[in-house]
Structures are given as C-alpha cells and as structure tokens.
Amino acid sequence: MNFYRNVNEDVIYVGACDRRTARFENMFSLPWGICYNSYLIIDGDKTCLMDGVDQSIAERYDRDVCQALNGRKLDYFVVQHVEPDHCATINNIMRQHPETKMIITQPGLKLMKQFYDIDYTERAIVAKDGLKLELNRHTLEFVLAPNVHWPEVMMTYDHFDKALYTADAFGSFKAQDGHLFVDQVDYRRDWLDEARRYYFNIVGKQGVHVQKLFQKLKKNNFEINMLLPLHGLVYRKREDVEMIFDLYDKWSSYTPEAKGVTLACGSMYNNTMEAMEYLANLLADRGVPNIRLYDISELDRSFVVSDLFRFSHAVFACPTYNTELFPEMDALLRDIIALNFSNRKIAILENKSWGGKAQKIAEEILDKGKNLDIIATATMTSTIHHHQLEILSDLADKIIADMSL
Ligand code: FEO
C-alpha cells in the first residue's frame, strides 16, 4: 500500500497529513490538521527529492519515497528549509541512500549540524542564487529566499515545469481532504482562512523579505505556472498562482485585505464583552461590512491575529487586571507588534473599576508599531449602564467616519 500521487508526469507527491498533532510549533492550534509536503522528481535516469517532512509522518514518508523510487537511486535531496517539521526525516533518507548529494544553503548546513549533530559538508552542493542543477529535461535553479521564514530558506525554480518550489511560503494550515490541487477545491470558502492564519502567524513578521522575493522573481523573469509549497495544496493553474501572489503582495506590505473591524475583547465577567457586543451591533446597523468579535481568552490567539491583519480597523477592549492590562490582551498586543502589525486604525476601550493603567499600557505597546493610528479611546467603569451608552456610540461614530463607508 502506498499514498504517493502524481502531480504531473515527472513529479510525485510524497507528503502526508497529520490530524493528531494539536498545535503547530506547540503554539498554533490545528483543528483541521496540517500536511507536510515533499515532492520527488523522476526525470529519466535522474531523481531528486524536494524536502523532507515532520517526524509525525516519518514512517509513511519513508515507505512512499522508497516505493516511488521503485529501486532507483536517489541522486539529489534538495533541502530548502531546515525547520524540524521538514527535516526530522532527512537523516533517514541520507542514511538509506549513501549516493545522494544534498543541495542546501551554507546557513542550512550549519543548522543541520546544530539540530541533528550531523555535518553534511562532504555530501553537499552549496546552493547559491542562480546555481542550476540539470536533471534531464528538468533544470532546477535555486533562488535564495532568506527570512521568508528562516534565514537559510531557499526556493527552487523548475524551468521545464515553470514551477516554483516555495518552502513554507504560500502554504497553509489544514490537512488535505483528498484533493491535492487548489483548483479542485473551493479555496476561498474552505482554505483561504487557514492560509491567511498560517501566513500572518508563521511568515507575517517577514513582509519586507517576501517583498524582496517578489522583486527577485520578477528580476529573474521567471514564468510561474505552478507553486509547490511545503504545507497545504499545490497551485497548478496560472490564475491560482496569480490569486495567491496578489494576496501575498497585500499581506506582506501590511495592506488591509478589506474594510472591516476586528473587535478583540478581554472580559472577566462578561461586562466588557457586553459593551463590545453592543458596539458590534452599532457598527453592523450602520453598514460596516466585515465584523469579527473575539473573546481573546477563549480562542487560540492565532485566529484573532489573522483577522487583525485582515481588516482595516481594530478595537481592543482592555480590562484592568492587578492595576495593569488584562494579561491575555497584553500578550495579544505584544504578539501582533512582534509580527509587524502596521497600517491600521485602532480604537481602545478600557475598563477599570477603581484605577489602573490598562489603556496606557495598551498604547505604549501599540506605539511600537508602524503607522498605527489610534482614532478613538474610551473608558468604561465596570459595566456599561444605560446612561453610558454614548461612550459606545461615540466609538462607533469615530470608526464609521474613519472608514468612509
Ligand atoms: Fe514548515 Fe518553517 O517550517
């Protein structure tokens, strides 16, 4: 029995899904699982494996690679990214195939030694920008993409398929449901949210490097009809490549994808949440098209982060705790600033019963972001009573006015 599948005539998918791991990097929840992708190119008498996979699917990977090779030697192993979710299985393959040459960047070699205490220098071809590897009809050209997640990352352009192997970029959380290609699914309905959550939480900090990658691809004049990422689905149609390139261009330049408001709310006794629900109703009644209201204590933070980067406006509802900022809100704000949250309009609603500096702390954290415009602030005391509703309508007025709906 095997699970490998053809991407096209010469390229075989040898990745697999993991529906048992609860959290990616032990942080980001995986309610729909994840897949680790790897591709085997069989080009006449030459074979080349593109990346490894996570330990969680190691056994199946070994079996599928072995069966797909069907007795052939493995000539090359291209290691585009040395994070353990792709490299935990490399040593097995390299042991089983002593003839295999590894194509890897110099920083990648160093990281392999750090993580696995194995020095592959003797078996390595060190990849540099523009280095080409001729198989038979496939010519692979390596494109360094430092910091499009980690510093050692590279990508690989296949001149024959006009395909870019993209390491983590253009990947997604979520395991495949049988379909391997973007054009086989309703991507916007079923995958885009998880692709966005993956981008902003995993790669989001590195927008400037994603932009540099786009410039490099343009300079190289690569015609790209396929993208083969290390997670998620394969893009094999030009229009799907263009769709995700457009989104990545927006995301990596920190441009809001749409007008809308993410209301991120901390609430101990549901009082702050009630105020946010009232505000959400006001915004909805006045025509705001996209509204997401999150209890940040309940949900994995990565979902909130994703929508904060998605929409143009954010409201942070900040209770006071121990006279400081509610800890979950403190963590959320520090997280998005670390991820380069920029170019957004913000309102802050502080809740304090007898004092404290929740709003001051929130503002100090947000002050470290780039082009974050605080368009409204307000303070409520414990609960919102009837006579205080103008606090919320004033917030709604300012947000609506700023959105120019
Ligand atoms: Fe999928 Fe950066 O590893």
**Whole-number average pLDDT?**
97
Give the DSSP E fraction (strand runs of 2 or more residues). 25-35%
Report the biggest beta sheet as strand number plus sense, adding barrel if it closes: 7 strands, mixed
Strand neighbour order, sheet with most strands = 1-2-7-8-9-10-11
Report the total helices: 13
Q: Please report the total strand number as a whole number.
A: 22
Helix proportion of residues, in percent? 25-40%
Write down the overall geometry.
Answer: elongated
Uncertain segments = none
Radius of gyration of CA atoms, rounded to a whole number: 24 Å
Give a structural overview:
This protein is of the alpha/beta class and 405 residues long. 34% of the residues lie in helices and 25% in strands. The protein has 13 helices and 22 strands. It has helices at residues 58-69, 84-87, 90-96, 106-116, 187-190, 192-203, 207-219, 238-252, 271-285, 301-310, 327-338, 358-366, 389-403; strands at residues 5-6, 11-13, 16-18, 23-24, 28-29, 34-36, 39-43, 46-50, 76-78, 101-104, 124-126, 132-134, 139-144, 154-158, 163-165, 226-228, 258-265, 291-295, 311-321, 324-325, 342-351, 370-380. A 7-stranded mixed β-sheet has the order 1-2-7-8-9-10-11. The radius of gyration is 24 Å and the shape is elongated. The N and C termini lie far apart (57 Å). It binds MU-OXO-diiron (FEO).
